[in-house]
Write a structure and sequence with these properties.
With 375 residues, the chain is of the alpha/beta class. The protein has helices at residues 43-48, 58-63, 67-72, 76-80, 92-97, 124-134, 152-176, 199-210, 228-238, 256-263, 274-280, 319-327, 331-358, 361-372, and strands at 2-8, 11-18, 21-25, 27-31, 54-57, 86-89, 102-104, 109-112, 119-122, 138-140, 188-193, 216-219, 248-250, 269-271, 283-286, 289-292.
Length: 375
């Protein structure tokens, strides 16, 4: 159940109550594709840096170790020793990202595994069954994420198929949640809005899926090649069409600036690989913009990554030491940068929630954006 606590313009401060605990929104979900955050980050670390939701990937866990293995181990929460909410994406994004390894049909998608080449079929029912085996808190509906440069005719046909797939997902989840052997019989289902950069297709699709009374709604197919301005234009058109009493999730987004702008447009949930991926390459976030710790100017810099930051890296280590670790290819350097970046994102969301509650989100957004641009 989603509880709206406070509005500040379109920005929303809320809570989503789930079987695995309450999620304070707006929230950034920390991405652990294969049931672990890349960069040697443990679930104890996630607790320490203020993570609320961990996100794992249905397709990747189906391929390895196999969702049946995870089910036999008691579900994803027991398998990875994490007692807070988990969201699993549906495998639909792999329809986009593995374009050279798949064929899309009405019944579903035929893949070749990116690991060993074996044939895999995934449709709406299969996606729901895999996610039920994983026993995540929130399951995402199976959809197609069309390319942002696809033509209008293709996108219209793709969106119509995604709507038909959503109806099948909803029916299959209802069936699975009634089975005695299902681990999480309270699994939630979020539907996904698609439509490329065509506002009219997006709005029509938003209205169609809003009528299906789901537990939450995502905006997919953005941050896949279109400009930030196009993304914001689509959000301006779509978010008002989605139910006010349900959470809104912007998939795969993004930079701190993207998050600040999307919150201002009514978005509640975010995820992105940026903080962990950038951290593994020595790029770290601060309130004054992003730093590249490989730069020679940090060789003798005794300061933490960011003054006043309470993350595990900044409480103890200097920029100079972390730079040395990165240059020496020591895994600890990568790990410390990932921990800092995830803490930065999680703490940013705390500040966003506080600003909305205080009724000064616009001023907070503008001040934070100025800082991130180094002004």
């Amino acid at each position: 159940m989603y509880e709206l606590i406070k509005r500040d313009g379109l920005a929303r401060r809320g809570r989503l109550h789930t079987v695995h605990g309450t999620i304070e929104t707006p929230v950034f979900m920390n991405v652990g594709t294969a049931a672990a955050i890349k960069g040697a980050v443990s679930t104890e670390d996630l607790q320490q840096i203020g993570t609320q939701v961990e996100l794992s990937n249905t397709y990747h866990l189906h391929v390895r170790p196999g969702d049946e293995v995870v089910k036999k181990m008691g579900g994803l929460h027991r398998f990875m020793v994490w007692d807070k909410p988990i969201l699993t994406d549906s495998g639909g994004f792999q329809v986009f990202s593995l374009a050279g390894l798949r064929r899309i049909k009405e019944e579903g998608v035929y893949f070749h595994s990116h690991i060993d080449g074996r044939k895999i079929f995934m449709g709406p029912e299969e996606s729901m069954q895999i996610q039920s085996n994983l026993a995540s808190t929130i399951a995402m509906a199976f959809d197609e994420c069309p390319s942002s440069v696809a033509d209008r005719d293709y996108i219209e046909r793709s969106v119509d198929r995604t709507t038909r797939w959503l109806a099948r997902c909803k029916a299959e989840m209802a069936r699975l949640n009634e089975l005695p052997e299902t681990i999480n019989k309270n699994q939630l289902l979020f539907g996904i809005n698609q439509g490329g950069v065509y506002e009219d297709i997006r709005v029509r699709h938003a209205r169609e899926i809003a009528a299906m009374d789901l537990d939450g709604y995502a905006v997919g197919g953005l941050a896949v090649g279109e400009s930030h301005e196009e993304m914001y234009r689509i959000l301006d058109a779509v978010v008002p069409e989605l139910p006010e009493d349900k959470p809104v999730y912007l998939m795969g987004v993004g930079t701190p600036a993207n998050i600040l702008e999307a919150v201002d447009r009514g978005v509640d949930f975010f995820d992105c690989v940026y903080p962990s991926r950038n951290g593994r390459h020595g790029h770290v976030y601060t309130k004054q913009g992003k730093l590249n710790l490989f730069n020679a100017k940090y060789e003798l810099d005794g300061r933490p990554i960011e003054e006043g930051c309470r993350c595990p890296a900044c409480r103890t280590y200097s920029r100079a030491y972390i730079r040395h670790l990165l240059k020496a290819k020591e895994m600890l350097g990568m790990r410390l940068c990932v921990l800092h970046n995830l803490y930065f994102y999680n703490h940013l969301m705390e500040e966003i929630r506080e600003a909305i509650e205080a009724g000064n989100y616009k001023a907070y957004k503008e001040k934070t954006l100025e800082g991130l641009q180094g002004k």
